Amino acid sequence: MSILYVFTFLLIFPFCSGLRSCTTEEINNLVTNCSTYETKLSWIRKFEISTTEKLTKTRKLCLQASNCYTSIKCQESVEKFEKSRLDCDKDQFVIGGVPNCIEWFFKKIYNANYNECLLENDFLTFNLTTRREAFTFGKQCVLKVLNESQECDPEAVQFITENYLQIVDYLTIKSNDCQDVHSHYHKLHCDLIDDEYNKEYERLIWGDKKVEDTGLFMIQLGRELIECESHSCHNSGGIEIGNLKEEILAMEIYGRNYSWKCLYDIRRPSMKTLMEKLLCLRDSKLGDDQECRRKFVEKICGNGNATEGTETPMVTEYYTDD
Ligand SMILES: *[C@@H]1O[C@H](CO)[C@@H](O)[C@H](O)[C@H]1NC(C)=O
Ligand SMILES: *[C@@H]1O[C@H](CO)[C@@H](O)[C@H](O)[C@H]1NC(C)=O
Ligand SMILES: *[C@@H]1O[C@H](CO)[C@@H](O)[C@H](O)[C@H]1NC(C)=O
Ligand SMILES: *[C@@H]1O[C@H](CO)[C@@H](O)[C@H](O)[C@H]1NC(C)=O
Ligand SMILES: *[C@@H]1O[C@H](CO)[C@@H](O)[C@H](O)[C@H]1NC(C)=O
Question: Which parts of the sequence belong to the T20D4.11-like domain (predicted)?
Answer without folding.
Answer: 22-178
